[in-house]
């Protein structure tokens, strides 16, 4: 039977190599003795074929049953046949007995070499007894052969002992390497599990750094892992600057440092979008300010980005110059990509939470706006009507003509109040938008603005642009127009308000609401948001509604020059990426 093994047996390769050397020596001896003929060297051919077979099996890591014993027996039989066939001690290759002795010294060390030398000695004595005068020579050769058997056995024991030690070291190294690989895979698995089950930014960043350190230094001794001088940090963009999200071995002062990412290592990583290795951190204009990095001589920076979205960078540094090997950088790449996915999920979750809070604020603001509009409009009108009715009732008994005039005024006030209420109901739910589309709804709003408030609103709508807008976006666009037009009516004192909707490039529609009113300082109004002034809230409402359609809002105004509200609305995901990428590049 034959059995395959995972690792080669070095003893087999030594035996095969020594056998090839002996075979070459036998061929040379026969050639010098001019006895190299096929008829008398058949046993030599069998030895060559046998060694070829053993070489093939060793190359495949295959061993036969009783492999060592079988090798020695075959070597004894073939070398004995060769010894007798070549004339015994008188032959040119009488020393052929060394071959099985060498094989035995490798496989069974001193006892194997001694037993084989004794067996072959018996064959030599038998051959010497067959030839008159050769027996004394046989005893001399036998003595030499036994001595050499002992010597070869001692050398074989020393060689095999050395090989066993090397194999043990190799096995230990392989086991340690396997343990390190298992530890790294475990760290990556734990990282993936942790990152896929958490939506907390802080936990994502902490886990990425902790698991990276564990994967880079999977030492079973925890004290060595703790004492490793690896420096790690995750920086995320916030308000246009890179800020420390989580770090290891950073000082308190380092945690407060912010970065522009406008030069040096950070700029290279962000611009190229690929991980980079670097040296001489202390000379970097931005990273050189970090105290924890000043003792580091090598580093690795992984940009946290997905498509056009750039979240920040993950950076590691170490005092050893060649610490970041290809194996370690590959691990960091895996961890970095997992961290990007987790950060995306955390950000999406955070956006959902913020969107929920923002929608609650929008609904609350809409409720307050409705309350204000009711208070400032219909409620005041109804109160005025009640007061005037009381006056008219009293006048009926004294001055009928004046009472008649008062009733006319009451009728006009009632009509105006009715219009205001209908306008409010129209803006709350424009049924015409659902039945006839955006163009008709905007025109109806313009007509009601003229009818109710005597405010002229010009409408310039490209029908091809509205046809490409889905109903959900049409509703948001209508409320953007309503918000902007009402802001202009209340604050701008504009004679004319113009609403335009047109396609400016493939996949992008431009909505513009312009007026010829008094204008305002955009920056000053935006800064008043904390004070919750009505004008700043109007701008916030416009911005939030623009974000609902993934659009870009631009407000252009200055005192005395009117106002132009522009919203660029993408119709496809490709157009949205192009639009927002152009904005980031411009910024």
Textual characterization of the structure:
This protein has 587 residues and is an alpha+beta fold. The protein folds into 3 domains: 2-172, no CATH class; 195-351, GAF domain (Beta-Lactamase, 2-Layer Sandwich); 455-587, Histidine kinase-like ATPase, C-terminal domain (Heat Shock Protein 90, 2-Layer Sandwich), CATH 3.30.565. It contains 19 helices and 13 strands.
Core attributes:
about 15% strand, 19 helices, rod-shaped, about 575 residues, alpha+beta, 3 domains
Query: How many domain units?
Result: 3
In total, the number of strands is 13
- Strand order across the biggest sheet? 5-4-3-8-7-6
Structural class: alpha+beta
| Percent of residues in beta strands | 5-15%
Shape: rod-shaped
Low-pLDDT parts are none
Helix content: 55-70%
Number of H- or I-type helical stretches: 19
């Amino acid at each position: 039977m034959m059995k395959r093994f995972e690792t080669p047996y070095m003893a087999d390769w030594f035996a095969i190599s020594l056998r090839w050397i002996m075979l070459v020596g036998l061929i040379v001896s026969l050639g010098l003795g001019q006895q190299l003929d096929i008829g008398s060297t058949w046993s030599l051919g069998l030895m060559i074929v046998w060694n070829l077979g053993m070489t093939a099996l060793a190359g495949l890591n295959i061993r036969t049953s009783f492999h060592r014993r079988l090798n020695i027996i075959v070597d004894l039989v073939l070398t004995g046949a060769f010894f007798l066939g070549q004339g015994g001690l008188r032959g040119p290759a009488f020393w052929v007995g060394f071959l099985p002795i060498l094989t035995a010294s490798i496989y069974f060390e001193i006892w194997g070499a001694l037993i084989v030398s004794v067996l072959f000695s018996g064959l030599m004595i038998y051959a010497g007894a067959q030839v008159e005068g050769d027996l004394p020579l046989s005893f001399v050769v036998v003595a030499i052969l036994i001595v050499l058997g002992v010597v070869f056995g001692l050398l074989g024991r020393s060689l095999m002992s050395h090989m066993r030690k090397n194999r043990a070291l190799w096995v230990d190294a392989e086991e340690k390497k396997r343990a390190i690989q298992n530890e790294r895979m475990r760290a990556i698995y734990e990282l993936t599990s942790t990152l896929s089950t958490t939506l907390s930014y802080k936990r994502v960043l902490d886990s990425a750094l902790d698991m990276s350190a564990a994967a880079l230094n999977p030492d079973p001794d925890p004290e060595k892992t703790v004492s490793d001088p690896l420096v790690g940090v995750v920086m995320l963009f916030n308000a246009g600057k890179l800020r420390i999200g989580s770090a290891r071995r950073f000082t308190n002062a380092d945690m407060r440092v912010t970065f522009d990412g406008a030069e040096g290592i950070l700029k290279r990583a962000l611009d190229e979008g690929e991980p980079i290795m670097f040296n001489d951190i202390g000379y970097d204009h931005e990273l050189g300010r970090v105290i924890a990095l000043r003792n580091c001589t090598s580093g690795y920076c992984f940009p946290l980005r997905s498509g056009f979205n750039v979240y920040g960078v993950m950076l590691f540094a170490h005092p050893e110059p060649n610490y970041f090997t290809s194996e370690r950088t590959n691990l960091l790449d895996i961890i970095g990509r997992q961290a990007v996915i987790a950060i995306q999920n955390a950000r999406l979750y955070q956006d959902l939470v913020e969107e929920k809070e923002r929608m609650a604020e929008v609904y609350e603001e809409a409720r307050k706006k409705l309350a204000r509009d009711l208070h400032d409009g219909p409620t005041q009108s109804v109160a005025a009507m009640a007061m005037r009715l009381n006056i008219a009732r009293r006048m009926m008994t004294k001055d009928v003509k004046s009472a008649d005039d008062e009733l006319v005024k009451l009728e006009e006030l009632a009509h105006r109040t009715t219009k205001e209420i209908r306008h409010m109901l129209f803006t709350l739910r424009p049924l015409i938008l659902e039945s006839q589309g955006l163009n008709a709804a905007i025109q109806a709003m313009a007509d009601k603005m003229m009818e109710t408030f005597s405010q002229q609103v010009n409408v310039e709508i490209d029908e091809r642009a509205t046809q490409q807008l889905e109903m959900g976006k049409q509703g948001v666009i209508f409320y953007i127009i309503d918000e902007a037009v009402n802001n202009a009516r209340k604050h701008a004192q504009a004679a004319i308000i113009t609403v335009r909707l047109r396609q400016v490039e493939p996949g992008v529609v431009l909505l513009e609401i312009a007026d010829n009113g008094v204008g305002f300082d955009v920056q000053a109004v935006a800064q008043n948001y904390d004070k919750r002034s009505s004008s700043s809230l109007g701008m916030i409402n416009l911005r939030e509604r623009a974000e609902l359609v993934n659009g870009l809002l631009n407000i252009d105004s200055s005192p005395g020059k009117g106002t132009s509200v522009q919203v660029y609305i993408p119709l496809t995901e490709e157009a949205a990426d192009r639009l927002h990428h152009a904005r980031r590049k411009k910024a």
